[in-house]
Specification:
By secondary structure, the chain is α/β, with parallel strands linked by helices. It contains 9 helices and 6 strands, in the order E-H-H-H-H-H-E-H-E-H-E-H-E-E-H. Helix content is about 45%, strand content about 10%. The chain has a 6-stranded parallel beta sheet with strand order 3-2-1-4-5-6. Strand 4 (about 165-170), helix 8 (about 175-180) and strand 5 form a beta-alpha-beta unit. The protein binds 6-O-phosphono-alpha-D-glucopyranose (G6P) and magnesium ion (MG). 6-O-phosphono-alpha-D-glucopyranose binds near residues 48 and 117.
């Protein structure tokens, strides 16, 4: 398959770099402290979902209710642990395959942008040496509704000056594939629960597989 698009919008966590393991560790620390059951299956439901919506999913198994103020404190606690883990990241955490593929896609003339629900997006991009790389970045600080709502991808396309129909999205989350389709974009699934979810236009075999379709 060959796609005729102008821009490729990348999800960040679980696509460009593997920060999803740090999300898991930070949520696990919080859940353990609260005595709430949490495992990889629950974690899969948090992909692409905002911080507060993720907390709500974790608290589904709690034995008591939490006030909105308590939830703010818990979300901040998780984010502090998560940021401490992110601080240890460096350009060596950007896989060679991802870096080489991005450079080749740029050489072929595509606009490359980010569409992530994370409010830590800019911090992560700086850590892995991509602080100035992308043509546009839309993240959790730009939107009021996280995936599966299409907002973050529509903002990313608008920032790059490209029509939604001219964009393809690379996602590891089912919620992200839903968001891409709702935005009127082509949805490419890589890893996670995006692959084989049934809503995607194409399953990527690897990140470098992008070079076969663009
Ligand atoms: C990404 C991740 C989610 C995370 C969300 C918010 O979409 O896939 O698991 O909950 O970002 O991240 P943040 O860094 O703002 O807490
Ligand atoms: Mg993701």
């Amino acid at each position: 398959m060959k796609l005729n698009k102008r821009a490729i919008i990348f999800d960040l966590d679980g696509v460009i770099c593997f920060t999803d393991k740090y999300h898991y560790q930070a949520w696990k620390m919080l859940a353990d402290r609260l005595g709430i059951y949490f495992d990889e299956r629950v974690n899969d439901r948090l992909r692409g979902v905002s911080r507060m919506a993720s907390l709500e999913i974790i608290l589904e198994r709690a034995s008591r209710q939490f006030t909105p103020e308590e939830k703010e404190v818990l979300a901040a606690e998780k984010n502090d642990s998560y940021r401490a883990l992110l601080s240890g990241m460096s350009p060596s955490d950007l896989p060679d395959e991802v870096r080489d593929t991005l450079l080749e896609l740029r050489r072929r003339g595509y606009l490359l942008t980010i569409g992530s629900s994370s409010k830590n997006t800019r911090f992560i991009l700086e850590r892995i040496g991509l602080g100035d790389f992308f043509d546009a970045v839309a993240d959790g600080t730009d939107i009021s509704r996280s995936k599966p709502d299409p907002e973050v991808f529509l903002v990313s396309a608008a920032k790059a000056g490209v029509a939604p129909a001219d964009c393809a999205v690379v996602e590891d989350a089912r919620s992200g594939i839903q968001a891409a389709k709702a935005a009127g974009m082509t949805a490419l699934a890589l890893f996670g629960d995006a692959k084989g979810c049934g809503l995607e236009d194409y399953d990527l075999a690897s990140f470098a597989d992008l070079l076969n379709i663009f």
